Please model this.
Amino acid sequence: MQKILLVEDQKDFQLMALNCLSDQYLMTVAGSLSEARERMKTEDFDMVLMDVMLPDGSGFEFVRRLKENQFLRHIPVVFLTSKSEIDERSRGLGLGAEDYIAKPYMPREFTARITARLKLFAAPMRSRIARDLENFSLKSLKSA
Model:
């Protein structure tokens, strides 16, 4: 089952996202950027759902750093935020986010968009992992 990190400080939006997605995905909730950082140090995620305005900083800055990290940049990010102006949307997408969903959102559309994004990223990731394993196996055989 794919695993999603939801970085959201507002309980009502946490519950809404969990109600939409927890039947299909393993959900982990972080109420702050510091909590999200700690979770990402110990757990692997297939997607990050990121609020922009959090008590300990900007989701934009967190995603900028995530996308600069060679080990984490492959993780798809979707912004979930009440900041829906075109400049904010453009900024989020410009940082490398795969989508930008304005709150409040419609549950069915939200679920469909998250599912579509995960499907887009799942196949290339499986192919990349398979290639990496094959290359590793070939190198191991050559050196043996």
